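Re: beginner question about structure tokens

> Can someone show what the tokenized structure looks like for a real chain? I only ever see the sequence side.

Sure, here's an example I had lying around. Input first:
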Amino acid sequence: MQKVRFFFNEVQVSLNHRTELKGTIERLFKKEKKALKSLNVIFCTDEHLLNINNEFLSHNYYTDIVTFYYSAPKEAVEAELYISVDRIAANAKALNVSTKNELHRVIFHGCLHLCGYGDKSSQQIMKMREREDYYLRLYFGK
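And the corresponding structure tokens:
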């Protein structure tokens, strides 16, 4: 049984069409052949995510997303995505894309990590971008 519980806001985020986004995320897990049990997406500030990054990963830098995977490797995914709205806005500006596009890319990026995709090597990054682009097109209908 899939259950995506969404959108816990520490800070306000403009996210229209939440039902459609939830459906796209559920399709992403199906297409990637990974069972989904529950997923929480929490929008927060740079400072909150920096604290999480320090406390749980011993990383002292800002990031756009931290993904927590709570289930055993062969079990259905139970996870949380913590997303910095501040980092999304800064990255969107730096990349010259809309904040809306960057926000959705990061959400799909976190989901793809949960499906087993990495982003450490250049080959992994290329595959990750390809899949992100695929799900952006699927969601936005482009």
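Each token stands for a local structural state, so reading them left to right follows the chain. The mean pLDDT is 90.
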